[in-house]
């Protein structure tokens, strides 16, 4: 069977870049690359204090640096995204692990998923309680179970068998999230009215071996009930990684991301576009320019918007270019590469 390969080296690639990309449009390909997000939503400058803005930037930078360190030392994309997500799961500023939003019943039900772009192996957990690091449990599902997704009590039983760390309910409690639930109940609001941001966390990485990985972790949406599960643990909706296409982690109004299969849709569009540019034979994709990739990603987020949904994605191409798209006022995010790039951003209009 043919493996679709990107002609990123050799004359084919040089030709493709020379004819298709305006001079200087594509930078030198990084040996490793990572991008993270800490949720998208109504994050406006006018609602932020300087302290809060700085605290989020510092937290994003810490997570980004943790992932970048793994990659710089030759570690795998999977280990890098895990390192970044672990920090954000422990940080109450984000809606994942500690700091997760409350369910209608005042509990925390956590969702997470992880995907390995090498072989598209994947693991996910949905609606688990008491797990300090849902991303570690998702990874265990991938590596130590014959399944892709485990939910609720069964997932917790599996976690216990695997020696995954648990925490008492108070560990996950935060005042701001509790107030959000109370406000929602008192004023009969929706999760969108009370959450000025979503706060899910995610990461995508490319390692020196050319492998992509993606992971996402969340507490879901405030006031969720009836065992509601969002897009974050759903492979193809909130998370996707395929070495031949891209790595994606999403954040936003999960129902829309599930309905559109956002993460997989982005990867499929990038694959098709790269194959069309490559011409026949169809199994030879070429490197897309960032502008071309961005068009495809924007089209998917526009589709989310057309249905009435909102949110954003971080996307990493097989060449290590990190791209963002969102239809919200902001998305906590950051990216770093082996070529020295390292930046964090919050508002949609920031580069
Ligand atoms: N996508 C998540 C969900 O719907 C929420 C978020 O991104 O914060 O569960």
Protein described:
The protein is an alpha+beta fold and about 350 residues long. The chain has a single domain (about 1-20, about 30-345), classed as Glutamine Phosphoribosylpyrophosphate, subunit 1, domain 1. It has 10 helices and 14 strands. It has helices at about 10-20, 50-70, 75-90, 135-145, 150-160, 175-185, 190-195, 255-260, 260-280, 290-305, and strands spanning about 5, 35-40, 110-115, 120-130, 150, 200-205, 210-220, 240, 245-250, 285, 310-315, 320-325, 330-335, 340-345. An 8-stranded mixed sheet has the order 5-4-3-7-6-2-13-14. Strands 8-9-11-12 form a 4-stranded antiparallel sheet. A hairpin with a 4-residue loop joins β13 and β14 (about 340-345). α2 (about 50-70) packs antiparallel against α3 and α9 runs antiparallel to α10. The longest helix is centred in the N-terminal third of the chain and has 23 residues, at about 50-70. It is globular, with a radius of gyration of 19 Å. The structure holds aspartic acid. Aspartic acid binds near residues 39, 198, 199, 221 and 232. This is Isoaspartyl peptidase/L-asparaginase. Keywords: Signal. InterPro entries: Ntn_hydrolases_N, Peptidase_T2.
